[in-house]
Amino acid sequence: MAGMNVSGMSPTYGVNQYNMTQEECQTCKNRKYVDGSNEMDVSFKAPGHISPENSYGEVMAHEQMHVANARAEGAKEGQELVSANVTLKMERCPECGKMYTAGGTTTTVIRKSQPAYKDNPYDDARKVVDAKMLAGQKIDAEV
Predict the structure, then answer these.
(1) Where exactly are the structural domains of the chain?
(2) DSSP string for 59-84
(3) Do residues 83 and 37 lie in contact, with contact meaning Cβ atoms separated by under 8 Å?
(4) 119: which DSSP letter?
(5) Is there a contact between 7 and 92 (Cβ–Cβ < 8 Å)?
(6) Spatial separation of the C-alpha atoms in residues 13 and 81, rounded to whole Å
(7) Strand ranges (E), 1-143
(8) DSSP 3-state of 101
(9) Which residue has the higher pLDDT, 128 or 98?
(10) What is the reported pTM?
């Protein structure tokens, strides 16, 4: 591993250069998590603290709330949940060197089916009007 500089490690012997003597560093103690989505029924709408040790589980549980909302939306009539993808971002605390989950992103794709004309009673009338308007606009005549 000599010559390779891994963040937080000495390039020669792999000795941690962070201060590991504190119980919890000030950076980790003051770190707040907040949800940035427009979904009101998920956690962390107000900023809240999560310890580095619990960050993975808490952030993953939060992102699973978004997945559950997407599943519920996809189960509605005329809609289908095509995919749901959760990505978690890991970072290292610059003060103490602990790894923590810095946040997550849930990406969903919901396919909405096109409504059939027979579902709307006004569509039959629209078809009749369209047919009368379009009749005779294009004529293919052989000479």
Answers:
(1) 26-114
(2) HHHHHHHHHHHHHHHHTSTTEEEEEE
(3) no
(4) G
(5) yes
(6) 50
(7) 79-92, 99-112
(8) strand
(9) 98
(10) 0.65
For residue 62, count other CB atoms closer than 10 A to its CB. 20
What are the pLDDT digits (tens) for 50-71?
Answer: 999 999 999 999 999 999 999 9
Q: Nearest to residue 26, comparing CAs of 90, 91, 100, 94?
A: 94
The three-point CA angle 67-69-70 to 5° equals 65
Between CA 68 and CA 42 the distance in angstroms is 10
118 half-sphere exposure, CB direction, 13 A CA radius: 0
Two tokens, residue 109: 């794709």
Strand 79-92 relative to strand 99-112, pairing: antiparallel
Looking at this protein, which amino acid is placed at residue 97? Answer: G
As a whole number of angstroms, the distance between CA 137 and CA 116 comes to 26
How far apart CA 93 and CA 29 sit, in angstroms, is 11
Say which amino acid occupies 84.
Answer: A
Q: What is the dihedral of CA 76, 78, 82, 86, to 10 degrees?
A: -30
User: Residues 6-41: pLDDT tens digits?
Assistant: 233 334 444 455 655 557 799 999 999 999 999 999
